[in-house]
UniProtKB/TrEMBL annotation:
Keywords: Developmental protein, Homeobox, Nucleus, Repressor, Transcription, Transcription regulation. This is Homeodomain-only protein. It is found in: Nucleus. It comes from the Eukaryota. Transmembrane segments: none annotated. It comes from Platysternon megacephalum (big-headed turtle).
Length: 77
């Protein structure tokens, strides 16, 4: 029995995602993300994974993980 390999998005779906994320809105809100997913025929999760830009950028700065402040080296005289 052959097992099915998971398929990535089609070229048409990638074109839809690229257009929406690159030219329309790089930081879609949840409702817009849902609409983009529906247009591409993908789930919201598949849309985030397949998006042509990093997910953290799609979700906006409020969802980024907190970062440690940069420490400056101490200069001793």
């Amino acid at each position: 029995m052959a097992t099915e390999q998971p398929m990535g998005p089609t070229d048409e779906q990638l074109e839809i995602l690229e257009y929406n994320f690159s030219k329309v809105n790089k930081h879609p809100d949840p409702t817009t993300l849902c609409l983009i997913a529906a247009e591409a025929g993908l789930s919201e999760e598949e849309t985030l994974v397949s998006a042509p830009v990093p997910t953290a950028l799609l979700l906006g700065p409020e969802t980024h993980l907190p970062t440690q402040p940069r420490r400056t080296p101490h200069h001793t005289p």
